């Protein structure tokens, strides 16, 4: 009897998955443990494992198709066996519902138009009454409004009554204007901001005057115009950050650090270790490695920063599960270094490199991106000197590391010298911590970065 292989739930927030690539084709022999497909979740691209021996007798979806969690993607059975029928209609349910709503909406609008026309015809007032009513003008009633203008093709121009009146007074051809109102409707401001056409200003209304006032030619496109589909990962990022920004009251702090000692330590370490083979301890440290280690070390001094908002309680964590931002083509992911405060600089650097590679290959497992207690994001490599990140739910804070910039500074002898400064921002969740906690943490971090030997002991 055939066995169905379903779309697995690979993260807590996952509701659908996109089948990116088939690794096995219909008719291929498969065995327990074989990977049959690659699936994009809301966080990464994962492989789907087969748990039966047999033949892949049916693929229920195409590459690029979304399938809801639990929906069948394939059937495995004996050669020649008929695959069972499945219903994955939920995968396109949202799109179908939207289409039905749109169709229904169009029908309703059409119905409203017919009803309005019928009602207008039945309730058309007596012409004499209308004429009598029009003769009774109050003091604030505007003067007679010109009849609706039309284009050369006979198409009615959308314009407000006031706009038509002012255009007639100023001799402005409405056909030459572009409206800023709903549906391109010309408003009063559009007419007031327009210059009269030369022919109209002289009292003429010839076609030549209209041509002279015609809109300029549209510019030639020099950049590629794209409509990009929103991937599951992008949807997940958007949902999480909107939730964080909406629910967590952010406050912002910044501190300036002397970056020269950190730069000197990195240069010295790399000079001694970069050329060595790995088996002899060879490695190369980045500024990111050093700041990650310093951020974890500073939590030892101010453990209150390592908290999370749990609704009814505030939890202070026993370990620093340190997340850091990695930019990939489809967004930003935040892999996590577990218990970072217990690991040395070499171990943190090595683990960060592995996680960065997996992130860029879209091979991060869900548990490698969840459960963080503090996040560090670094844009210094792009020359950004200072910025503030959005807090990673449910962390109490996120650190923003800027570039090390050379600029004039005043030293301890009150002398103006060339210094290397680094700005570090902190975005804090005011539900969980207060400004004093954030300030104390930044002070501790500053001391470690300016005396980087402290992180090595």
Automatic annotation (TrEMBL):
Acidic residues bias (residue ranges): 83-96
One GO biological process term: pyruvate decarboxylation to acetyl-CoA
Pfam families noted in UniProt: 2-oxoacid_dh, Biotin_lipoyl, E3_binding
Compositionally biased spans, kind Basic and acidic residues: 97-140
A Gene Ontology term for the protein's cellular component: pyruvate dehydrogenase complex
Enzyme Commission code(s) on record: 2.3.1.-
Transferase found in the keyword field: yes
Leader sequence segment: none
Keywords: Acyltransferase, Lipoyl, Transferase
Cofactor: (R)-lipoate
Gene Ontology molecular-function annotations: acyltransferase activity
Cross-referenced CDD domains: lipoyl_domain (cd06849)
Domain Lipoyl-binding residue range list: 2-77
Boundaries of every Peripheral subunit-binding (PSBD) domain copy: 158-195
Location of region: Disordered: 77-159
Family label: Belongs to the 2-oxoacid dehydrogenase family.
Reported function: The pyruvate dehydrogenase complex catalyzes the overall conversion of pyruvate to acetyl-CoA and CO(2). It contains multiple copies of three enzymatic components: pyruvate dehydrogenase (E1), dihydrolipoamide acetyltransferase (E2) and lipoamide dehydrogenase (E3).
Protein name: Dihydrolipoamide acetyltransferase component of pyruvate dehydrogenase complex
Organism: Coraliomargarita sinensis
Phylogenetic placement of the source organism: Bacteria, Pseudomonadati, Verrucomicrobiota, Opitutia, Puniceicoccales
